[in-house]
Every structure is written in C-alpha cells, then in structure tokens.
Amino acid sequence: MAFPACRPLTFIMTGFGWLLLASLLGMASLIGLVRGTPLPPGLRLVHVHGALVGGVAQMIMGAMLTFVSTLLMTGRDRRDSHPVLFAAMNGGALALVLGFGFRNYQVVAAAGCVVLAAFFWVGRDTWQQARRSVNRPPLNVWYYALALAALAGGLALGIGMAAQVIQPAWTGSARLVHLHLNLMGFVTVTIVGTMHNLLPTILQQPLHNPRLSRLVFFLLPAGIAVLISGFALSSLSIEFIGGTALALAVCLYAFNLFATWRASSRPGDAASDHLLTATFFLVLAVFMGLLVAANYLGEHPFLPFGTLHLVAYTHTALTGFVLQTIFGALSHLVPVTLAAHRVASNKKRGPYLDMLIRIMNRWRVAQVVGLSMGTAGLGLVASLTWTAPLGSVVVQTAVWVTFGLFLTSLTLFSVKLAWVFSTRAGKDTA
User: Is the residue at 26 inside a domain?
Assistant: First the structure.
C-alpha cells in the first residue's frame, strides 16, 4: 500500500530531513569556528531555526497529529492527510531560514506568524477533539496543551523581536525567554509527556509509578515558569529556584522511566536504548544549566565561558536529549506505521513488522555510542580550550573525531530509515 502525502509520518520524515541538513550546517559551523574561518553569522541562525522549526517542531506536529486522536479515541472519521498544514509549516520554516540568511527580519516576522498559525490550528483541533471525546483527556494531552501554550508565547516573543517591537534594552532577556519557552516549555514538555506512554509501549511494561508522572506534570511546568521569570527579571536567585525545581522534576521523570525499563523482561532495542540515553542527557543538561548559572554568581565568572562552551552546553540538550529521543521514537514509530499501512491483515502484519524492526536494530550500539560520544566530544573540545589554543593539534583532533562520531551516527540511522522505507511486504505478508 502506498503511503499518501501529508499524513503525519510525512511531517515527521520531512522534519527529519530538515534536521539532517541543519546538522550538517552546524558541523560545518563548528569546524569553521575552530579553524578560525567562521561562517557568516546569519548561518548560525539558519542552522538553529532550521533544526528547531523545520526539524524538531515539525516532527512534534506530526507526533501530535498521530497520538492525540488515538489518545482521545476520536480518529475513526478524521482526515489522515493535511496538505494545507504541511505547506504552511514548511513554507513558514523555509521563509524563516531565508529571512535569517538574508537578514530580512520582516520576512522572519511574517514566517513566524505562519508557523504560529499552523500550530494554532493543531491546538484548536486538539481542543475540539477533547470536547467530542467520550473519554476524559489523558495526562499526555494536558502535557501537549501546556507545550502548545509555551510555544505560542515563545513564537510571539520571536515575532516581536524580529518586528522590532521589543525595546533594545529588553532584547537580551526576551531572547532567553524566547529560547527557553520553545526548548523547555514546548520541546521538553512534549517529549516528557510522550515518553510516559511511548517507552512503556516499546518495553511492553506498565509505567512504574503513574503518580510520579502526575507529580512531574505539575513540577516541570512550575520549574520552567519560575526559571523564565528569573530570566525576565534578570534574577539569578529566581533562576536557581526554577532550576532546582526542574532538576527535581527531571530526576523523578528519569527514575520512573528507568524503573519501568528495569521491570521489563524485553531485551533492549534501538528505540529503548536511544530513549533511555536521551533521559540521561536531559538530567545532565539540567544540572549543567545550574552549574552555568553558578559560574556567574560572583562578581567574575569562576571559569571563562565562551562560544564553544555555550555550544557544548546547549548541545547536551539538543543532540544528547532531543536528537537521541528522535532516533529512539523513529526507530519504533516508522516500522509500526509502515506495517499498519502496508499490510491490511493483522495476522500477516507481524512478520513484516518484525523484519522492519530488525533493520532498525542493526548497528544500534555504534549508532547510540556515536551520537553519545559525539555529544560528549563537544564538551571535551570546549574544556580543552581552557588550557590549549583553538589552533592546537589536540583541539583540532578532538573536533574532527567529534565530527566523525556525529556523521557516523547520522549516516547509519539515515541508511536504515531508507532501507526500511524501501523494504516492501512479501506476497506472504501482503
């Protein structure tokens, strides 16, 4: 069975394509920075917004289109294709990166409005489904509602900065609030909400403690709200309170997932390996954030903190947490979705699904280790610059090793995705 255009999986795979291109640009930017030949500043914003808007946000949109109707049990009579929404999301993302690339911030503001409108439609559709559903909305849907509210605030701030309606004196605080509303309020809250269902499904094991998931639901957004208030007020003490609440929330979340994994009798696979590794990096990133804030408590920083250190810190979250999560989710979601759409018979679907899962599990150790060590490599490169110059052999070697690890993991995963999509069901499973 052919896979029609503009279904949720199309959003997810198009977002992955954006993410691949943005990742290559990011690696080129890192190499240029270390070699003393930095790329034009506008390309850094192209890399960031291509990865986060065209890539991560679009994949989350696809995930919401996939999961919300299932959770609310309202998907029987719904359209499965969304061409206008797909065009709006990708047109807005393309205009956004072009606007940053050519430093045309009017185009950036307009593109942000298009992306905001696309997610407004998703939020409105979710609300309508929740009202029609005979079931009480599960906790996951409330996570998504909070995430969409945070995204609306983050995009509105971004649009305001691009349109220059925010006073220059507030730009620094607005940029921090914009970044953390989108990354913490939208991306992290969405992933945490999804993982409470997705990992137990993959492991075929009930969540260890549902009460902890409800506690995290209240504690995580509260910590984010306090943290953002600290950024808005330029108050390190408030930031620390918010960061501490965040640290507690992600530790409880991680404990719940790891306890679920330990109770499972299923052997590990690519999906669970990536998702559990991502959980570790989320905890690490939050505690690193507390250390970065502590570095500025005194009159002078304890350690010098430059561009490379910021790159290492942010990518602990972006590649260690977000990209690992994407690899894990796709390792499960793509085979299941393709099997469901290509094989009509439930009885015959199992062998085909098992074959697709075996493909996704190939080379999984090299894939997980490459992405994890590549993320750690960024931290090593940044740490080396405290004692060695950028042009030194040791720093240059560390950069190229890091580049190789990232590229190996991305290549392995991309090859396997292409392999899975090209593997059709045989006559005995059709």
Answer: yes
